[in-house]
Automatic annotation (TrEMBL):
Acetylated. Deacetylation by the SIR2-homolog deacetylase activates the enzyme. It comes from Ancylobacter mangrovi. CoA binds at residues 190-193, 310, 334, 522, 583. GO terms for cellular component: cytosol. This is Acetyl-coenzyme A synthetase.
Length: 648
C-alpha cells in the first residue's frame, strides 16, 4: 500500500465537470434520493416514450429482481448514432487503427449510420428479429462495431465471444444462448499473426450439431483461404451489396435484453451475463462522461478488445452515446515495436487513454526509451482497468507516460456491473497509487467480514454493494436461480462482488483481488474449475487442481497440479502436451504457466481438495500453511513442496 497522495492538477481543477465539493454533493444526492437522482440522469439518453417509473429493484433472497426505467421505450443504436446526426454527422465517430501501422480509417457518424443500417438489413434478410440471439466472433475491425450496433438496432441480443477462444468454448456459448446466426471474419490479424476465425467457427459448429446455426456471415479481413458452406455461409460484402442503408430502429422497452456476455465464475461453465437496454446505456454514458471527463472534441482510446465488457461499455456504447470520437485498435502493444501505443497516441492526437495494468507492466519492462521517443503531448488523462494496479506500475504510468500532468483513473468494475463502480474523478479526487478511491454516483459499497457483519471505518474484508444501480446485470441468461445463488446468497440482501478489499481512513477503497476460485490472468477472468475440467478431459490425466500465483507481468499466473493415470510417466513432453491441450480446449488465455505433476493432492478425510494449501505452495509461502492435521495424508504436502515448479 502506497502512502503517496497526488493532488488534482491545477489545469484539471479548472476544466473538469466536478471538483471535490461537486463530487461529494452529487454523491450525497445520489444515495439520499436514488429515485429523484436517476429520474434526472435517465434523461441523458433519448426516449421514444419517457419512463414514469425509475427504480424497481429488490435484493430479497429468493426474489431478486432488478428493473430500471421499466416503462420507458428507446433504442440503443438510435441513441449511439441517429440522435447525433444533425449536430455531428460529419464528426468522426470511430478512428480505426489497424494491426499494421500503415492501415487506418476514419468513420463519421453519417457513415456509421449507413454501415449499421446496412448490416442490420443483412441480418433482417436472414430473419433476425427482436429477441433473437446473434453470436459475434470477430477481430477488432469496424465491422465488429457495426454488427453489435446492427443487433441493437433490430433488438436482437448480441453475444460477443472473444476471438481468442477455442472452437470448443465458442460452441458452448453458441449452444447456451441458442443463436442461429454467427458473424465472423475470414481471419483476424494481431501482431502480424493470423487468427483462423472462420475455421474455428466451422470447427465449433461441427462440435455442436445440436446448435442449429442457420447462417454464418463472413467479413473479409485478410483474404486468406477459407471454406464456405453453401446455403449456410455468406460473404458480408456480397450480402451488403443487395440491401439499402435505410433501416428503422426497433422501439425497445428499457428492460429488453441488449446483450449477453459470458464470463467465468468460481464454479461450472461460464455464465451468460445479461444486460438490458435503458439502465445499461444511461450508466455507461454517464460513467464515460464523468470518469473520463469527456468533453466535445476529445479523442478517446480504450485499448480493450470488443470481446470483453470493457470493449462493450467503453469502446462502443458509453462513448458513442455521448457523441464521442472513439478509437478502435486491432493490434497489440508491442507490434511492430514497444512504442506502438505511444505512436498511435501521437498519430491520432489521443487525449484520453484507457488500458490495463498487465500492458503497463509489460511495457515498463522495456524501459523508458520507447516511451520517451514519442511526444504524447495530446494526452490529458490516463485510465486503468481489469485488475489491481501495483503502485510501481501506477507511478511509471503517471510519471513516464503521463509526465506527471495526467491523472490516472484506476477504475474498478466487473462484467456484471455493466460500468465503473469505484473510481477517481480526475478533477475531484486526490489520487493514491493502487487505490480505486471512491464510489461512483449511486453506488453503495460496503466491506463485510466472513459472517456478513458490515465493517465501519478503516477495515479489510469482502466487498459487497448494498443497493442496485442502473447498469447492473439483470440475470444469468436462462438461469435466474444461478444468478441469485451466485451473487445474492453469500451475503443475503447484498450483491457480492467476489473481490476482497481494504478501506482506509479516508474512505478510499483498495481492491485486493478475487476471494473466490476465479483467477485474473492479464486482466482476463478464468475460472479454475474450467481449466481443471479441460485438464481432466485429457486421457492421461486422472485429477487436476488449478490455483493462481503472483506473476510479474500477468498479475496472476495459472498453476496446475496434475495427477496422472497410473503407469503414465511424468515427462517434459507431456507437460508441453497438456499446455497445448488446454489452449485448444479453452483458448490461449487459459494456458497453464506452470504444471506440477503431483502423485497425490492434499485432501480432507471427506475427499475435498484443500485449495488453500495448494495456493500457499504455488505462492511460495510454506511457512504459513495453516492446519494440515485434518488431511487424509499429511505427507502429501511435503511431497508437493519439494516438487514445486519455479516461476518464470
Ligand atoms: C478485477 C473487467 C482491481 C476484479 C472490467 C473484478 C480490478 C474483476 C479492477 C472483473 C481494478 C477489475 N482494480 N481489480 N481497477 N478492475 N478488477 O468481469 O477482481 O473481466 O472482480 O471486468 O477484475 O473482471 P471483468
Amino acid at each position: 500500500m502506497s502512502d503517496k497522495i497526488y493532488d488534482v492538477p491545477a489545469a484539471w481543477a479548472q476544466r473538469a465537470y466536478l471538483d471535490d465539493h461537486g463530487y461529494r454533493a452529487k454523491y450525497e444526492a445520489s444515495v439520499r434520493d436514488p429515485e429523484g437522482f436517476w429520474a434526472e440522469e435517465g434523461k441523458r439518453i433519448d426516449w421514444f416514450e419517457p419512463y414514469t417509473r425509475v427504480k424497481n429493484t429488490s435484493y430479497d433472497p429468493g426474489h431478486v429482481s432488478i428493473k430500471w426505467f421499466e416503462d420507458g421505450v428507446t433504442n440503443v443504436a438510435w441513441n449511439c448514432i441517429d440522435r447525433h446526426l444533425d449536430a455531428r454527422g460529419d464528426q468522426v465517430a470511430i478512428i480505426w487503427e489497424g494491426d499494421d501501422p500503415s492501415e487506418s480509417r476514419l468513420i463519421t457518424y453519417n457513415e456509421l449510420h449507413d454501415q449499421v443500417c446496412r448490416f442490420a438489413n443483412v441480418l433482417r434478410n436472414r430473419n433476425v428479429e427482436k429477441g433473437d440471439r446473434v453470436t459475434i466472433y470477430m477481430p477488432m475491425i469496424p465491422e465488429a462495431a457495426y454488427a453489435m450496433l446492427a443487433c441493437a438496432r433490430l433488438g436482437a441480443v448480441h453475444s460477443v465471444v472473444f476471438g481468442g477462444f477455442s472452437p470448443d468454448s465458442l460452441a458452448g456459448r453458441v449452444r447456451d444462448c441458442g443463436s442461429r446466426v454467427i458473424i465472423t471474419a475470414d481471419e483476424g490479424l494481431r501482431g502480424g499473426r493470423k487468427v483462423p476465425l472462420k475455421a474455428n467457427v466451422d470447427a465449433a459448429i461441427a462440435k455442436a450439431p445440436d446448435a442449429e446455426v442457420d447462417h454464418v456471415i463472413v467479413v473479409k479481413r485478410t483474404g486468406g483461404t477459407i471454406d464456405m458452406t453453401p446455403g449456410r455461409d455468406v460473404w458480408y460484402h456480397e450480402a451488403a451489396d443487395l440491401v439499402t442503408s435505410e433501416c428503422p430502429a426497433t422501439p425497445m422497452n428499457a428492460e429488453d435484453p441488449l446483450f449477453i456476455l459470458y464470463t467465468s465464475g468460481s464454479t461450472g461453465s461460464p455464465k451468460g451475463v445479461l444486460h438490458t437496454t435503458g439502465g445499461y446505456l444511461v450508466y455507461a454514458a454517464m460513467t464515460h462522461h464523468y470518469v473520463f471527463d469527456y468533453h466535445e472534441g476529445d479523442v478517446y482510446w480504450c485499448t480493450a478488445d470488443i470481446g470483453w465488457v470493457t470493449g462493450h461499455s467503453y469502446i462502443l456504447y458509453g462513448p458513442l452515446a455521448n457523441g464521442a470520437t472513439t478509437l478502435m485498435f486491432e493490434g497489440v502493444p508491442n507490434y511492430p515495436s514497444n512504442s506502438r501505443f505511444w505512436e498511435v497516441i501521437d498519430k491520432h492526437k489521443v487525449n484520453i487513454f484507457y488500458t490495463a495494468p498487465t500492458a503497463i507492466r509489460a511495457l515498463m519492462q522495456g524501459g523508458d526509451a520507447p516511451v520517451l521517443k514519442t511526444s504524447r503531448a495530446s494526452l490529458r488523462l490516463l485510465g486503468s482497468v481489469g485488475e489491481p494496479i501495483n503502485p510501481e506500475a501506477w507511478e511509471w504510468y503517471y510519471r513516464v507516460v503521463g509526465e506527471e500532468r495526467c491523472p490516472v483513473v484506476d477504475t474498478w468494475w466487473q462484467t456484471e456491473t455493466g460500468g465503473i463502480l469505484i473510481t477517481p474523478l480526475p478533477g475531484a479526487t486526490r489520487l493514491k497509487p493502487g487505490s480505486a478511491t471512491r464510489p461512483f454516483f449511486g453506488v453503495i459499497p460496503q466491506v463485510v467480514d466472513a459472517e456478513g457483519n458490515v465493517l465501519e471505518g478503516a477495515c479489510e474484508g469482502n466487498l459487497v454493494i448494498a443497493d442496485s444501480w442502473p447498469g447492473q446485470m439483470r440475470t444469468v441468461y436462462g438461469d435466474h436461480e444461478r444468478f441469485m445463488q451466485t451473487y445474492f446468497s453469500t451475503y443475503p440482501g447484498k450483491y457480492f462482488t467476489g473481490d476482497g478489499c481494504r478501506r482506509d481512513a479516508d474512505g478510499y477503497y483498495w481492491i485486493t483481488g478475487r476471494v473466490d476460485d476465479v483467477i485474473n490472468v492479464s486482466g482476463h477472468r478464468m475460472g479454475t474449475a474450467e481449466v481443471e475440467s479441460a485438464l481432466v478431459a485429457h486421457p492421461k490425466v486422472s485429477e487436476a487442481a488449478v490455483v493462481g500465483y503472483p506473476h510479474d507481468i500477468k498479475g496472476q499466473g495459472i498453476y496446475a497440479y496434475v495427477t496422472l493415470m497410473a503407469g503414465v510417466e511424468p515427462t517434459e513432453e507431456l507437460r508441453k502436451e497438456l499446455v497445448g491441450w488446454v489452449r485448444r480446449e479453452i483458448g490461449p488465455i487459459a494456458s497453464p504457466d506452470l504444471i506440477q505433476f503431483a502423485p497425490g493432492l492434499p485432501k480432507t478425510r471427506s475427499g475435498k481438495i484443500m485449495r488453500r494449501i495448494l495456493r500457499k505452495i504455488a505462492e511460495d509461502e510454506y511457512g504459513n500453511l495453516g492446519d494440515t492435521s485434518t488431511l487424509a495424508d499429511p505427507a502429501v504436502v511435503q511431497d508437493l513442496i519439494s516438487q514445486r515448479q519455479n516461476k518464470k
